[in-house]
Amino acid sequence: MPQRCTYFNKFLEVKDNTGHIVLQFHLISDTQTVQLQGEWWNVHGQGMRMVLDPTGDGAFIPLSKDSERYDGQLISPIFGYPSRDHWGEYASGKTVWWCLETQI
């Protein structure tokens, strides 16, 4: 599936061909910390989305290609799109919150 990637400074964001964000990665080199949100699928059409939920906690949402995609809990974009017109610009009003943060 074609994907689009936007990166700037120590952030990486990947969109799938439907326009959904499927990976966000932030490296904080001062503290050797990685912040991550993402969506992963196996070859059987089952997946998992790791995202910050509306209460501010991290949520692991099971996904299935056989059922309707759970679009109520998508990963919010960090960057403005299309990136060719908004290179290095953050999404309007975006506050960056992360589901998983761990030291490397």
Short overview:
With 104 residues, this protein is mostly beta strands. The chain contains no helices and 7 strands.
What does this 3D model show about the protein?
This protein is mostly beta strands and 104 residues long. It has one domain. It has strands spanning 4-8, 11-15, 21-28, 33-41, 46-52, 58-64, 100-103. Strands 1, 2, 3, 4, 5, 6 and 7 form a seven-stranded antiparallel sheet that branches. A hairpin with a 5-residue loop joins strand 2 and strand 3. The model has no long low-confidence stretch (mean pLDDT 76).
Distance between the termini: 30 Å
Mean pLDDT: 76
Give the low-confidence spans: none
Shape: globular
Q: Based on DSSP secondary structure assignment, what is the total number of beta strands?
A: 7
Strand content: 35-45%
Rg measurement, Å: 14 Å
Order of helices and strands: EEEEEEE
Q: Helix count?
A: 0
Q: Give the helix/strand class.
A: mainly beta
Q: How much helicity do the residues have?
A: under 10%
What's the structural domain tally?
Answer: 1
Largest sheet: 7 strands, antiparallel
Please name the defining characteristics of this protein:
104 residues, seven-stranded antiparallel β-sheet, 43% strand
